[in-house]
Specification:
The protein has helices at 2-9, 40-48, 70-85, 87-91, 94-110, 123-133, 150-163, 179-187, 212-219, 241-244, 297-313, 315-333, 363-372, and strands at 19-21, 58-59, 117-120, 141-145, 166-170, 194-200, 225-229, 248-252, 264-268, 339-341, 353-358, 375-376, 378-380, 385-389, 394-396. The chain is an alpha/beta fold.
Length: 399
Amino acid sequence: MSSRRKFIKTASLFAGGSISLLNSAFTKGETIDFEKATNDDELFAMVRKQLLIPDKLIYLNTGSLGPSPLEIIDGMHAITRQLESNPVGENWGSLGNQMELVRKKVADFIHADADEIVLTRNTTEGLNLIAQSLQLNKGDEIITTTLEHGGCEVGLDFLVKTKGAILKKIELPLPGNSVMEIVEAIKKEITPKTKLLMLSHVNTITGMLMPFAEIAKITRPNGIYLIADGAQAPGLVNVNVKALGVDAYSASGHKWLMGPKETGFLFIRKEFQELVQPVFTFSGLTAYSASSGTRNVSTIIGLGLALDFHNRIGTDKIQQRTLQLRNYCLAELKKLKGLKIISPESSDLSTGMVSFSLDTVKNSEIFNKMKERDIIVKLLTQHNAIRISCHMFVSKKGY
């Protein structure tokens, strides 16, 4: 197909192969019965037909924003029309009740309890709710890495400025080779003054899966708070906050979950809630409260629709598919000269993202050439690198 030919021509990025989007068709946004699919290729082709992305566009940047399926878009339109037919009656009636049910859907999706979930607008807002209310003392240490997203860093800078905390940014190997290598790199930086670790569950630069469960074995016994930036994880990998051992977990619904833009959620472990009491949750954690004020009903319910969409396919199936695509992409990249893979190859650390840095060519040059050919990737300016997101609606030639 023409999109595949364009992809091959782009700086010979995938020698001997290509990645393309499955064929799309502008269909109605009715609920799709995925059980009718006779195999995985057919199933994920059905997913692709639910997207508004044009056939010619190869979309490989879900890590920034994911495309919402038609059934979610149309569902939100219907909710908005219902809301506007009787704003007060619906907002604090039928639709308000549906909005509150989304907290339970989120809790089930990440293996938490509903009374540990706050609905937010994005990952950054959730992390900031933690930062603005967490009590630290002057000289307390915060540990993070040099590979974190700016949204995560804002709250840490706030704690430094307002509490007198000390922020330590540690270097992680690029790429990471093993779980123990990552754990040891973090462990050696912990001191008696360390009070908080804030790390990405799936790293935004490299796509590395942070081994939180192993890190929690160090932090929990020593009274160190463990906070996860989960922006890149839900919808890409299975998330079990209990198994991860985190005290708080903040994520967005508009990336790999392919939900409405400006949606997210924050998990706060019950035992941790006494230490984190922002004004936003002063009146409770419910979707609407006196301290939260009026919410965007249609987008919040739309987040619930996105969770339903993923659950109908199966999180294990999605994770397996994205890893298959990522492994194919990685294998093709390794055939090329002039670049370095900065994403881990270890199966314990891998996800559906792969990033590479360029030795001599500027990444902006490759990025622009790809964009001209309707191939959308992520430009990583700080590493002269490019990130490729391989979500389930992507396919490989001959797959």
